[in-house]
Amino acid sequence: MRPPTTLQHLFSSILTSSMPTIFLTMPSSISISISISSSTFLLPLFFFSLVSISPSLILSASVVEDLNNLHPPPDFNSTIIKNCLNIPSLRYCNYSSPLDLIEIFKSTIVASHLCNESRNPNCVETFPKIDLHSRPKIAPLYLSFTFFWKYCPLTILSINLSNNSLNGGFPSHVLQCSQIQSLDLSHNKLSGDVPVQSLSQLTNISLLNLSYNHFSESKISDSHFFRHFNSSSFLHSGLVPDRWGFKIKVIVFLFGFPMFVILMVGCLGWICLHRPDFLPAVLRRKYKFTPAMLKAATGGFSVNNLVGKSEGVDIYRGSVRDGSQVRIEIYRDEVSGDGRRRFTGECEILVQLRHKNIVKVVGWCDNRRLRAIVTQWTDGENVEMWVAGSAPPWKQRLKILMGVLDAMRYLHEQWPHVGYDLRTCSILLSNNRQPLISRFRIGDQISNTRKIYKFGILVMEMVTNKRPREEFERGEEEFIEWIRMHYPENAHMVFDERMRKTGNTVDQATQGIGLGLMCSDLSRERQPTFDVIPSMMSELSDLCRVPSSPDYKISHGGKGQGHGRNQSR
After folding, report:
1. Strand pairing of 207-209 and 306-310?
2. Which of these, 423, 433, 436, 359, lies nearest to 396 by C-alpha position?
3. pLDDT at residue 175 above 90?
4. Does 133 score more than 90 pLDDT?
5. Residues with Cβ < 8 Å from 39, sequence gap 6 or more?
6. 183-197 burial, b for 16+ CB within 10 Å, e for fewer?
7. Among 40, 159, 539, 553, fewest CB within 10 Å belongs to which?
8. If we measure between CA atoms, which residue out of 316, 320, 321 comes closest to residue 302?
9. pLDDT, tens digit (0-9, with 9 covering 90-100), for 26-77
10. Helices 533-544 & 394-414, crossing angle to 10 degrees?
11. Are 176 and 132 in contact (CB under 8 A)?
12. How far apart, in whole angstroms, are the C-alpha atoms of residue 174 and residue 183?
Protein backbone atom coordinates (compact mmCIF):
# COMPACT_ATOMS: atom_id res chain seq x y z
CA MET A 1 0.00 0.00 0.00
CA ARG A 2 1.31 3.50 -0.92
CA PRO A 3 2.05 5.96 1.87
CA PRO A 4 -0.70 8.53 2.42
CA THR A 5 -0.58 11.70 0.31
CA THR A 6 -0.73 15.08 2.06
CA LEU A 7 -3.87 17.05 1.00
CA GLN A 8 -3.88 20.79 0.31
CA HIS A 9 -7.69 21.12 0.94
CA LEU A 10 -10.38 18.98 2.52
CA PHE A 11 -14.07 18.54 1.79
CA SER A 12 -15.89 21.65 3.08
CA SER A 13 -18.68 20.35 5.23
CA ILE A 14 -18.83 18.23 8.31
CA LEU A 15 -18.26 14.49 8.14
CA THR A 16 -17.38 14.04 11.75
CA SER A 17 -15.48 10.79 12.41
CA SER A 18 -12.30 9.27 13.93
CA MET A 19 -11.80 6.93 11.02
CA PRO A 20 -8.24 6.14 9.94
CA THR A 21 -8.47 6.69 6.19
CA ILE A 22 -10.90 7.75 3.41
CA PHE A 23 -10.26 6.70 -0.19
CA LEU A 24 -11.57 8.86 -3.06
CA THR A 25 -11.49 8.01 -6.74
CA MET A 26 -10.38 10.85 -9.05
CA PRO A 27 -11.55 11.20 -12.66
CA SER A 28 -8.09 10.17 -13.79
CA SER A 29 -8.47 6.94 -11.82
CA ILE A 30 -5.82 8.06 -9.31
CA SER A 31 -6.49 6.67 -5.90
CA ILE A 32 -6.01 9.20 -3.07
CA SER A 33 -5.80 8.17 0.53
CA ILE A 34 -6.68 10.69 3.18
CA SER A 35 -5.10 9.93 6.47
CA ILE A 36 -6.91 11.08 9.56
CA SER A 37 -5.38 10.41 12.89
CA SER A 38 -7.49 9.03 15.64
CA SER A 39 -8.03 10.99 18.79
CA THR A 40 -9.70 10.44 22.07
CA PHE A 41 -12.41 12.93 21.14
CA LEU A 42 -14.38 13.53 17.95
CA LEU A 43 -12.69 15.92 15.60
CA PRO A 44 -14.91 17.82 13.17
CA LEU A 45 -14.07 16.78 9.66
CA PHE A 46 -15.43 18.64 6.60
CA PHE A 47 -16.97 17.55 3.37
CA PHE A 48 -13.78 16.97 1.50
CA SER A 49 -13.05 18.92 -1.67
CA LEU A 50 -10.95 17.28 -4.34
CA VAL A 51 -7.72 19.21 -4.90
CA SER A 52 -4.56 18.84 -6.84
CA ILE A 53 -1.97 16.51 -5.41
CA SER A 54 0.60 17.41 -7.98
CA PRO A 55 1.13 20.17 -10.59
CA SER A 56 -0.34 17.88 -13.24
CA LEU A 57 -3.75 17.41 -11.48
CA ILE A 58 -6.05 20.46 -11.41
CA LEU A 59 -9.68 20.63 -10.24
CA SER A 60 -12.41 21.80 -12.61
CA ALA A 61 -12.95 25.57 -12.75
CA SER A 62 -16.67 25.64 -11.95
CA VAL A 63 -18.92 23.97 -9.45
CA VAL A 64 -21.22 22.81 -12.24
CA GLU A 65 -18.42 21.01 -14.02
CA ASP A 66 -17.28 19.35 -10.79
CA LEU A 67 -20.82 18.20 -10.08
CA ASN A 68 -20.96 16.59 -13.51
CA ASN A 69 -17.51 15.01 -13.46
CA LEU A 70 -16.78 13.84 -9.88
CA HIS A 71 -18.23 10.65 -8.37
CA PRO A 72 -18.28 9.16 -4.85
CA PRO A 73 -15.38 6.83 -3.91
CA PRO A 74 -16.21 3.11 -3.39
CA ASP A 75 -16.19 3.26 0.41
CA PHE A 76 -18.11 6.52 0.70
CA ASN A 77 -21.16 4.71 2.05
CA SER A 78 -19.24 3.00 4.85
CA THR A 79 -17.61 6.27 5.77
CA ILE A 80 -21.01 7.93 6.11
CA ILE A 81 -22.23 5.07 8.31
CA LYS A 82 -19.22 5.32 10.63
CA ASN A 83 -19.65 9.10 10.97
CA CYS A 84 -23.32 8.73 11.81
CA LEU A 85 -22.49 6.12 14.48
CA ASN A 86 -20.20 8.66 16.12
CA ILE A 87 -22.45 11.75 15.62
CA PRO A 88 -26.05 10.74 14.97
CA SER A 89 -27.16 14.41 14.75
CA LEU A 90 -25.45 14.92 11.40
CA ARG A 91 -28.04 15.91 8.75
CA TYR A 92 -27.16 13.16 6.33
CA CYS A 93 -27.60 10.37 8.85
CA ASN A 94 -31.18 9.68 7.80
CA TYR A 95 -30.47 8.89 4.18
CA SER A 96 -32.30 5.84 2.89
CA SER A 97 -31.43 5.37 -0.78
CA PRO A 98 -28.48 5.46 -3.18
CA LEU A 99 -29.87 8.76 -4.54
CA ASP A 100 -29.47 10.28 -1.10
CA LEU A 101 -25.87 9.12 -1.06
CA ILE A 102 -25.21 10.84 -4.38
CA GLU A 103 -26.79 14.06 -3.07
CA ILE A 104 -24.61 13.92 0.05
CA PHE A 105 -21.52 13.60 -2.12
CA LYS A 106 -22.64 16.48 -4.35
CA SER A 107 -23.26 18.62 -1.30
CA THR A 108 -19.58 18.14 -0.32
CA ILE A 109 -18.56 19.51 -3.74
CA VAL A 110 -20.87 22.54 -3.45
CA ALA A 111 -19.68 23.13 0.11
CA SER A 112 -16.06 23.22 -1.05
CA HIS A 113 -16.75 25.82 -3.74
CA LEU A 114 -19.11 27.86 -1.60
CA CYS A 115 -16.66 27.99 1.31
CA ASN A 116 -14.01 29.48 -0.96
CA GLU A 117 -16.47 31.85 -2.68
CA SER A 118 -17.45 33.10 0.78
CA ARG A 119 -13.80 33.99 1.50
CA ASN A 120 -13.50 31.89 4.64
CA PRO A 121 -9.87 32.01 5.89
CA ASN A 122 -9.29 28.26 6.24
CA CYS A 123 -11.77 26.04 4.45
CA VAL A 124 -9.72 22.94 5.37
CA GLU A 125 -10.59 23.28 9.02
CA THR A 126 -13.83 25.26 9.21
CA PHE A 127 -16.76 26.64 7.20
CA PRO A 128 -18.33 29.30 9.47
CA LYS A 129 -20.12 31.60 7.01
CA ILE A 130 -21.81 31.87 3.63
CA ASP A 131 -21.12 35.38 2.31
CA LEU A 132 -22.43 36.08 -1.18
CA HIS A 133 -23.06 39.79 -0.64
CA SER A 134 -23.29 41.65 -3.97
CA ARG A 135 -22.61 38.48 -5.98
CA PRO A 136 -25.70 38.52 -8.28
CA LYS A 137 -24.12 36.17 -10.84
CA ILE A 138 -23.49 33.24 -8.51
CA ALA A 139 -25.92 33.74 -5.62
CA PRO A 140 -28.95 32.41 -7.56
CA LEU A 141 -26.85 29.41 -8.67
CA TYR A 142 -25.95 28.33 -5.13
CA LEU A 143 -29.53 28.93 -3.97
CA SER A 144 -30.67 26.47 -6.64
CA PHE A 145 -28.60 23.60 -5.11
CA THR A 146 -31.38 22.40 -2.82
CA PHE A 147 -29.43 19.22 -1.96
CA PHE A 148 -26.72 21.38 -0.37
CA TRP A 149 -29.18 23.22 1.90
CA LYS A 150 -30.77 19.87 2.77
CA TYR A 151 -27.41 18.70 4.18
CA CYS A 152 -26.26 22.15 5.34
CA PRO A 153 -22.99 21.83 7.35
CA LEU A 154 -23.50 22.37 11.07
CA THR A 155 -20.54 24.74 11.29
CA ILE A 156 -22.27 27.49 9.22
CA LEU A 157 -23.39 30.27 11.56
CA SER A 158 -23.92 33.19 9.17
CA ILE A 159 -25.64 33.53 5.79
CA ASN A 160 -25.44 36.80 3.81
CA LEU A 161 -27.29 36.93 0.48
CA SER A 162 -27.91 40.70 0.43
CA ASN A 163 -27.81 43.03 -2.55
CA ASN A 164 -28.21 40.40 -5.26
CA SER A 165 -31.50 41.52 -6.87
CA LEU A 166 -32.98 38.11 -6.06
CA ASN A 167 -36.51 37.65 -7.40
CA GLY A 168 -39.36 35.39 -6.41
CA GLY A 169 -40.50 34.25 -3.02
CA PHE A 170 -38.66 33.82 0.25
CA PRO A 171 -35.81 31.22 -0.17
CA SER A 172 -37.23 28.85 2.45
CA HIS A 173 -34.66 26.09 1.90
CA VAL A 174 -32.01 28.38 3.45
CA LEU A 175 -33.85 27.96 6.72
CA GLN A 176 -32.79 24.28 6.79
CA CYS A 177 -29.54 25.64 8.22
CA SER A 178 -31.38 25.88 11.54
CA GLN A 179 -28.23 26.48 13.61
CA ILE A 180 -27.42 29.88 12.01
CA GLN A 181 -27.08 33.00 14.15
CA SER A 182 -27.27 35.58 11.33
CA LEU A 183 -29.40 35.85 8.16
CA ASP A 184 -29.24 38.83 5.78
CA LEU A 185 -31.60 38.92 2.76
CA SER A 186 -31.77 42.70 2.47
CA HIS A 187 -31.68 44.78 -0.73
CA ASN A 188 -33.25 42.18 -2.98
CA LYS A 189 -36.55 41.95 -4.85
CA LEU A 190 -38.09 39.13 -2.89
CA SER A 191 -41.88 39.12 -2.63
CA GLY A 192 -44.78 37.12 -1.25
CA ASP A 193 -45.29 35.86 2.28
CA VAL A 194 -42.53 35.38 4.83
CA PRO A 195 -42.54 31.85 6.36
CA VAL A 196 -43.00 33.01 9.96
CA GLN A 197 -43.33 29.51 11.36
CA SER A 198 -40.11 28.31 9.73
CA LEU A 199 -38.21 31.40 10.86
CA SER A 200 -39.44 30.84 14.42
CA GLN A 201 -37.53 27.55 14.48
CA LEU A 202 -34.19 29.40 14.19
CA THR A 203 -33.64 29.44 17.94
CA ASN A 204 -30.01 30.65 17.76
CA ILE A 205 -30.54 33.59 15.40
CA SER A 206 -29.68 37.00 16.79
CA LEU A 207 -29.35 39.05 13.60
CA LEU A 208 -32.08 39.15 10.92
CA ASN A 209 -32.27 41.64 8.08
CA LEU A 210 -35.16 41.52 5.59
CA SER A 211 -35.08 45.21 4.67
CA TYR A 212 -35.65 46.61 1.19
CA ASN A 213 -37.71 43.84 -0.33
CA HIS A 214 -41.29 43.55 -1.52
CA PHE A 215 -42.81 41.08 0.91
CA SER A 216 -46.53 41.00 1.62
CA GLU A 217 -47.61 43.00 4.63
CA SER A 218 -47.86 40.81 7.71
CA LYS A 219 -48.69 41.34 11.36
CA ILE A 220 -45.24 40.26 12.51
CA SER A 221 -45.83 42.00 15.84
CA ASP A 222 -48.18 39.14 16.69
CA SER A 223 -45.28 36.68 16.47
CA HIS A 224 -43.13 36.23 19.56
CA PHE A 225 -40.13 35.45 17.33
CA PHE A 226 -40.04 38.87 15.62
CA ARG A 227 -40.10 40.72 18.94
CA HIS A 228 -36.39 39.98 19.28
CA PHE A 229 -35.56 42.35 16.43
CA ASN A 230 -36.00 46.08 16.05
CA SER A 231 -37.66 47.89 13.16
CA SER A 232 -34.36 48.33 11.31
CA SER A 233 -34.56 44.66 10.39
CA PHE A 234 -37.69 45.30 8.34
CA LEU A 235 -37.19 48.75 6.79
CA HIS A 236 -39.01 49.05 3.47
CA SER A 237 -39.52 45.30 3.42
CA GLY A 238 -43.29 45.51 3.00
CA LEU A 239 -43.82 43.53 6.20
CA VAL A 240 -44.35 46.47 8.52
CA PRO A 241 -46.82 49.21 7.60
CA ASP A 242 -44.93 52.41 6.84
CA ARG A 243 -46.49 54.76 9.37
CA TRP A 244 -44.80 57.84 8.00
CA GLY A 245 -45.70 56.77 4.50
CA PHE A 246 -49.26 56.20 5.67
CA LYS A 247 -49.41 59.66 7.20
CA ILE A 248 -48.05 61.17 4.01
CA LYS A 249 -50.65 59.28 2.00
CA VAL A 250 -53.39 60.55 4.30
CA ILE A 251 -52.14 64.12 3.98
CA VAL A 252 -51.86 63.79 0.22
CA PHE A 253 -55.35 62.36 0.06
CA LEU A 254 -56.90 64.99 2.32
CA PHE A 255 -55.29 67.90 0.50
CA GLY A 256 -54.33 66.47 -2.86
CA PHE A 257 -57.64 64.86 -3.71
CA PRO A 258 -59.70 68.04 -3.25
CA MET A 259 -57.12 69.96 -5.29
CA PHE A 260 -57.30 67.27 -7.94
CA VAL A 261 -61.10 67.51 -7.99
CA ILE A 262 -60.95 71.31 -8.25
CA LEU A 263 -58.39 71.05 -11.04
CA MET A 264 -60.46 68.49 -12.92
CA VAL A 265 -63.63 70.57 -12.53
CA GLY A 266 -61.72 73.63 -13.74
CA CYS A 267 -60.34 71.74 -16.73
CA LEU A 268 -63.75 70.29 -17.53
CA GLY A 269 -65.30 73.74 -17.25
CA TRP A 270 -62.68 75.21 -19.57
CA ILE A 271 -63.24 72.40 -22.06
CA CYS A 272 -67.02 72.89 -21.91
CA LEU A 273 -66.67 76.63 -22.53
CA HIS A 274 -63.82 76.71 -25.02
CA ARG A 275 -63.21 73.26 -26.55
CA PRO A 276 -66.41 71.21 -26.27
CA ASP A 277 -65.24 69.22 -29.30
CA PHE A 278 -63.00 67.27 -26.88
CA LEU A 279 -66.07 66.02 -25.01
CA PRO A 280 -67.97 62.85 -25.96
CA ALA A 281 -70.68 63.47 -28.54
CA VAL A 282 -73.44 62.86 -25.99
CA LEU A 283 -72.11 65.67 -23.76
CA ARG A 284 -71.36 68.43 -26.24
CA ARG A 285 -73.89 70.87 -27.64
CA LYS A 286 -74.69 70.05 -31.23
CA TYR A 287 -73.85 72.66 -33.90
CA LYS A 288 -72.12 74.90 -31.33
CA PHE A 289 -68.66 76.28 -32.16
CA THR A 290 -66.44 78.47 -29.98
CA PRO A 291 -63.74 80.97 -30.98
CA ALA A 292 -61.11 78.53 -29.67
CA MET A 293 -62.48 75.77 -31.90
CA LEU A 294 -62.48 78.05 -34.96
CA LYS A 295 -58.97 79.23 -34.14
CA ALA A 296 -57.75 75.64 -33.93
CA ALA A 297 -59.59 74.70 -37.14
CA THR A 298 -57.98 77.55 -39.12
CA GLY A 299 -54.49 77.25 -37.67
CA GLY A 300 -54.89 80.42 -35.63
CA PHE A 301 -56.79 82.21 -38.43
CA SER A 302 -53.76 81.77 -40.64
CA VAL A 303 -53.62 83.78 -43.88
CA ASN A 304 -52.80 80.49 -45.60
CA ASN A 305 -56.36 79.36 -44.83
CA LEU A 306 -58.01 82.68 -45.78
CA VAL A 307 -59.88 81.98 -49.03
CA GLY A 308 -62.06 85.08 -49.30
CA LYS A 309 -62.50 88.53 -47.78
CA SER A 310 -65.04 91.32 -48.06
CA GLU A 311 -66.27 94.16 -45.89
CA GLY A 312 -66.86 92.74 -42.42
CA VAL A 313 -66.61 89.10 -43.57
CA ASP A 314 -63.60 86.78 -43.71
CA ILE A 315 -63.95 83.34 -45.24
CA TYR A 316 -61.57 80.59 -44.09
CA ARG A 317 -61.03 76.99 -44.92
CA GLY A 318 -60.68 74.89 -41.80
CA SER A 319 -60.40 71.35 -40.49
CA VAL A 320 -62.40 70.41 -37.41
CA ARG A 321 -61.39 67.80 -34.88
CA ASP A 322 -63.14 64.88 -36.61
CA GLY A 323 -61.04 65.59 -39.72
CA SER A 324 -63.79 67.02 -41.94
CA GLN A 325 -63.15 70.16 -43.98
CA VAL A 326 -65.39 73.18 -43.38
CA ARG A 327 -65.96 76.68 -44.74
CA ILE A 328 -66.01 79.32 -42.01
CA GLU A 329 -67.61 82.73 -42.60
CA ILE A 330 -66.51 85.09 -39.84
CA TYR A 331 -68.46 88.32 -39.23
CA ARG A 332 -66.32 90.79 -37.32
CA ASP A 333 -68.91 93.52 -36.86
CA GLU A 334 -70.17 94.06 -33.31
CA VAL A 335 -73.83 93.53 -32.60
CA SER A 336 -76.05 94.06 -29.59
CA GLY A 337 -77.41 91.34 -27.36
CA ASP A 338 -80.64 91.31 -29.32
CA GLY A 339 -78.66 90.99 -32.54
CA ARG A 340 -76.78 88.00 -31.17
CA ARG A 341 -79.99 86.31 -30.11
CA ARG A 342 -81.48 86.97 -33.53
CA PHE A 343 -78.33 85.57 -35.17
CA THR A 344 -78.52 82.42 -33.05
CA GLY A 345 -82.17 81.93 -33.95
CA GLU A 346 -81.32 82.24 -37.63
CA CYS A 347 -78.54 79.71 -37.36
CA GLU A 348 -80.81 77.25 -35.56
CA ILE A 349 -82.96 77.36 -38.67
CA LEU A 350 -80.08 77.07 -41.13
CA VAL A 351 -78.75 73.84 -39.61
CA GLN A 352 -82.12 72.25 -40.38
CA LEU A 353 -81.95 72.94 -44.13
CA ARG A 354 -81.55 69.73 -46.13
CA HIS A 355 -81.40 69.93 -49.92
CA LYS A 356 -78.93 68.75 -52.52
CA ASN A 357 -78.58 72.31 -53.88
CA ILE A 358 -78.11 74.00 -50.50
CA VAL A 359 -74.78 73.89 -48.77
CA LYS A 360 -74.97 72.02 -45.45
CA VAL A 361 -74.65 74.28 -42.39
CA VAL A 362 -72.79 72.34 -39.68
CA GLY A 363 -72.84 74.97 -36.94
CA TRP A 364 -72.26 78.52 -35.80
CA CYS A 365 -70.44 80.69 -33.25
CA ASP A 366 -72.19 83.56 -31.46
CA ASN A 367 -69.45 84.87 -29.19
CA ARG A 368 -69.46 88.57 -28.26
CA ARG A 369 -66.21 89.16 -30.13
CA LEU A 370 -66.83 86.83 -33.03
CA ARG A 371 -69.80 85.55 -34.99
CA ALA A 372 -69.43 82.85 -37.61
CA ILE A 373 -71.33 80.33 -39.69
CA VAL A 374 -69.63 77.01 -40.40
CA THR A 375 -70.67 75.13 -43.53
CA GLN A 376 -69.51 72.03 -45.32
CA TRP A 377 -66.47 72.64 -47.50
CA THR A 378 -66.61 72.05 -51.23
CA ASP A 379 -63.52 71.91 -53.40
CA GLY A 380 -65.45 73.23 -56.41
CA GLU A 381 -65.30 76.87 -57.53
CA ASN A 382 -68.20 79.32 -57.50
CA VAL A 383 -70.41 79.90 -60.54
CA GLU A 384 -68.79 83.23 -61.38
CA MET A 385 -65.34 81.65 -61.59
CA TRP A 386 -66.69 78.65 -63.49
CA VAL A 387 -68.43 80.72 -66.20
CA ALA A 388 -65.52 83.13 -66.57
CA GLY A 389 -62.87 80.42 -66.67
CA SER A 390 -64.47 77.44 -68.40
CA ALA A 391 -66.88 79.16 -70.86
CA PRO A 392 -69.38 76.29 -70.50
CA PRO A 393 -72.01 75.66 -73.19
CA TRP A 394 -75.58 76.84 -72.71
CA LYS A 395 -76.80 73.37 -71.77
CA GLN A 396 -74.51 73.22 -68.71
CA ARG A 397 -75.43 76.77 -67.69
CA LEU A 398 -79.10 75.86 -67.89
CA LYS A 399 -78.48 72.83 -65.68
CA ILE A 400 -77.02 75.10 -62.99
CA LEU A 401 -80.08 77.39 -63.22
CA MET A 402 -82.42 74.41 -62.86
CA GLY A 403 -80.59 73.31 -59.68
CA VAL A 404 -80.79 76.81 -58.19
CA LEU A 405 -84.51 77.01 -58.99
CA ASP A 406 -85.06 73.62 -57.33
CA ALA A 407 -83.45 74.90 -54.12
CA MET A 408 -85.51 78.11 -54.31
CA ARG A 409 -88.73 76.09 -54.53
CA TYR A 410 -87.69 74.00 -51.50
CA LEU A 411 -87.06 77.14 -49.45
CA HIS A 412 -90.24 78.80 -50.73
CA GLU A 413 -92.40 75.87 -49.72
CA GLN A 414 -90.77 74.83 -46.41
CA TRP A 415 -88.76 77.84 -45.19
CA PRO A 416 -90.42 80.93 -46.73
CA HIS A 417 -88.83 83.32 -44.19
CA VAL A 418 -85.28 82.30 -45.19
CA GLY A 419 -83.64 84.66 -47.65
CA TYR A 420 -80.58 83.82 -49.77
CA ASP A 421 -77.95 85.37 -51.99
CA LEU A 422 -78.17 84.46 -55.70
CA ARG A 423 -75.08 86.28 -56.91
CA THR A 424 -72.86 84.07 -59.04
CA CYS A 425 -70.01 84.58 -56.59
CA SER A 426 -72.15 83.19 -53.75
CA ILE A 427 -73.34 80.03 -55.53
CA LEU A 428 -70.81 77.24 -55.13
CA LEU A 429 -70.31 74.17 -57.28
CA SER A 430 -69.93 70.73 -55.80
CA ASN A 431 -67.54 68.11 -57.14
CA ASN A 432 -70.26 66.77 -59.45
CA ARG A 433 -71.15 70.25 -60.74
CA GLN A 434 -74.26 70.70 -58.60
CA PRO A 435 -75.01 74.34 -57.63
CA LEU A 436 -75.08 75.07 -53.91
CA ILE A 437 -76.71 78.17 -52.42
CA SER A 438 -74.28 79.10 -49.68
CA ARG A 439 -75.32 82.44 -48.18
CA PHE A 440 -78.56 83.17 -46.40
CA ARG A 441 -80.44 86.00 -44.76
CA ILE A 442 -83.18 85.35 -42.24
CA GLY A 443 -85.74 87.77 -40.93
CA ASP A 444 -85.06 90.50 -43.49
CA GLN A 445 -88.64 90.18 -44.76
CA ILE A 446 -87.49 89.58 -48.33
CA SER A 447 -90.59 89.32 -50.51
CA ASN A 448 -91.13 86.66 -53.14
CA THR A 449 -91.08 89.44 -55.75
CA ARG A 450 -87.55 90.33 -54.72
CA LYS A 451 -86.43 86.69 -54.74
CA ILE A 452 -87.79 86.19 -58.26
CA TYR A 453 -86.09 89.43 -59.32
CA LYS A 454 -82.73 88.07 -58.09
CA PHE A 455 -83.29 84.86 -60.01
CA GLY A 456 -83.92 86.87 -63.21
CA ILE A 457 -80.62 88.74 -62.71
CA LEU A 458 -78.87 85.37 -62.20
CA VAL A 459 -80.31 84.00 -65.49
CA MET A 460 -79.06 87.01 -67.44
CA GLU A 461 -75.65 86.87 -65.75
CA MET A 462 -75.32 83.23 -66.80
CA VAL A 463 -76.12 84.13 -70.44
CA THR A 464 -73.98 87.26 -70.70
CA ASN A 465 -71.09 86.49 -68.31
CA LYS A 466 -71.40 90.06 -67.00
CA ARG A 467 -71.13 91.26 -63.43
CA PRO A 468 -73.69 94.07 -63.04
CA ARG A 469 -72.27 95.51 -59.84
CA GLU A 470 -68.71 95.74 -61.13
CA GLU A 471 -69.15 96.40 -64.87
CA PHE A 472 -72.07 98.87 -64.88
CA GLU A 473 -72.03 102.26 -63.25
CA ARG A 474 -75.62 102.04 -62.03
CA GLY A 475 -75.37 98.35 -61.29
CA GLU A 476 -78.30 96.04 -61.97
CA GLU A 477 -80.56 98.83 -63.27
CA GLU A 478 -78.15 99.74 -66.07
CA PHE A 479 -77.46 96.05 -66.72
CA ILE A 480 -81.17 95.40 -67.38
CA GLU A 481 -81.43 98.46 -69.64
CA TRP A 482 -78.43 97.28 -71.67
CA ILE A 483 -80.05 93.90 -72.28
CA ARG A 484 -83.44 95.42 -73.17
CA MET A 485 -81.72 97.56 -75.82
CA HIS A 486 -80.68 94.43 -77.72
CA TYR A 487 -83.59 92.13 -77.02
CA PRO A 488 -84.99 90.40 -78.99
CA GLU A 489 -83.63 91.29 -82.45
CA ASN A 490 -80.01 91.60 -81.44
CA ALA A 491 -80.10 89.39 -78.36
CA HIS A 492 -77.08 87.47 -79.64
CA MET A 493 -75.01 90.64 -79.07
CA VAL A 494 -75.34 90.31 -75.26
CA PHE A 495 -74.45 86.61 -75.22
CA ASP A 496 -71.15 85.46 -73.73
CA GLU A 497 -68.78 85.76 -76.69
CA ARG A 498 -67.08 82.48 -75.81
CA MET A 499 -70.30 80.45 -75.60
CA ARG A 500 -70.77 78.30 -78.66
CA LYS A 501 -73.74 79.48 -80.75
CA THR A 502 -74.58 76.40 -82.80
CA GLY A 503 -77.90 74.76 -83.65
CA ASN A 504 -80.77 76.02 -81.49
CA THR A 505 -78.48 77.46 -78.81
CA VAL A 506 -79.22 81.04 -79.89
CA ASP A 507 -82.96 80.50 -79.63
CA GLN A 508 -82.67 78.81 -76.24
CA ALA A 509 -80.40 81.52 -74.84
CA THR A 510 -82.73 84.20 -76.24
CA GLN A 511 -85.65 82.60 -74.44
CA GLY A 512 -83.51 82.53 -71.32
CA ILE A 513 -82.93 86.28 -71.69
CA GLY A 514 -86.67 86.75 -72.08
CA LEU A 515 -87.33 84.78 -68.88
CA GLY A 516 -84.70 86.82 -67.07
CA LEU A 517 -86.27 90.11 -68.17
CA MET A 518 -89.71 88.92 -67.07
CA CYS A 519 -88.40 87.88 -63.64
CA SER A 520 -86.52 91.18 -63.16
CA ASP A 521 -89.68 93.19 -63.94
CA LEU A 522 -90.90 94.20 -60.49
CA SER A 523 -94.39 94.97 -61.70
CA ARG A 524 -96.80 92.29 -60.56
CA GLU A 525 -98.52 92.19 -63.92
CA ARG A 526 -95.51 90.94 -65.86
CA GLN A 527 -93.38 89.06 -63.26
CA PRO A 528 -94.09 85.29 -63.21
CA THR A 529 -94.81 83.56 -59.91
CA PHE A 530 -93.02 80.65 -58.27
CA ASP A 531 -95.74 78.39 -59.64
CA VAL A 532 -95.06 79.42 -63.25
CA ILE A 533 -91.27 79.73 -63.36
CA PRO A 534 -90.59 75.96 -63.03
CA SER A 535 -92.72 75.16 -66.09
CA MET A 536 -91.01 77.91 -68.11
CA MET A 537 -87.60 76.53 -67.13
CA SER A 538 -88.76 73.03 -68.04
CA GLU A 539 -89.63 74.27 -71.55
CA LEU A 540 -86.10 75.64 -71.90
CA SER A 541 -84.70 72.35 -70.67
CA ASP A 542 -86.84 70.43 -73.18
CA LEU A 543 -85.53 72.62 -76.00
CA CYS A 544 -82.00 71.46 -75.14
CA ARG A 545 -83.06 67.89 -75.90
CA VAL A 546 -84.31 68.83 -79.44
CA PRO A 547 -81.52 68.08 -81.97
CA SER A 548 -80.54 70.90 -84.31
CA SER A 549 -81.65 70.77 -88.00
CA PRO A 550 -80.44 72.56 -91.13
CA ASP A 551 -84.06 73.67 -91.76
CA TYR A 552 -84.26 75.18 -88.28
CA LYS A 553 -85.00 78.94 -88.38
CA ILE A 554 -85.56 81.60 -85.74
CA SER A 555 -88.04 84.47 -86.15
CA HIS A 556 -88.29 87.40 -83.72
CA GLY A 557 -91.33 89.39 -82.89
CA GLY A 558 -91.38 93.04 -81.83
CA LYS A 559 -88.81 94.41 -79.40
CA GLY A 560 -89.56 93.32 -75.92
CA GLN A 561 -92.54 91.22 -77.05
CA GLY A 562 -90.96 87.78 -76.95
CA HIS A 563 -89.87 85.49 -79.70
CA GLY A 564 -91.20 82.58 -81.73
CA ARG A 565 -89.86 79.56 -83.53
CA ASN A 566 -90.80 78.23 -86.97
CA GLN A 567 -89.61 74.93 -88.24
CA SER A 568 -90.18 73.79 -91.85
CA ARG A 569 -91.39 70.30 -92.22
Report:
1. unpaired
2. 433
3. yes
4. yes
5. 18
6. bbbbbbebeeebeee
7. 40
8. 316
9. 332 223 333 333 222 223 333 433 332 222 223 345 888 888 888 888 888 8
10. 160
11. no
12. 9
The answer to whether 315 touches 328, Cβ cutoff 8 Å, is yes
382 DSSP 8-state letter: B
Instruction: Using alpha carbons only, give the angle 183, 185, 188 rounded to the nearest 5 degrees.
Output: 175
Q: Is 150 exposed, middle or buried (0-12, 13-18, 19+ CB in 10 A)?
A: middle
Q: From CA 567, how far away is CA 527, in angstroms rounded?
A: 29
Residue 120 CA to residue 114 CA, distance in Å, equals 9
Put residue 55 in one of left, alpha, beta given phi > 0 → left and psi -120 to 50 → alpha. alpha
> Secondary structure of 518-540 in the HEC alphabet?
HHCCCCCCCCCCCCCHHHHHHHH
No. of H helices and E strands in the chain? 17, 19
The amino acid that residue 343 corresponds to is F
**pLDDT grade for 288, boundaries at 50, 70 and 90:** confident
Query: For residue 376, which amino acid is it?
Result: Q
* Secondary structure class of 30 (helix, strand, coil): coil
Query: CA-based angle 184:186:188, to the nearest 5?
Result: 130
Amino acid at 86: N
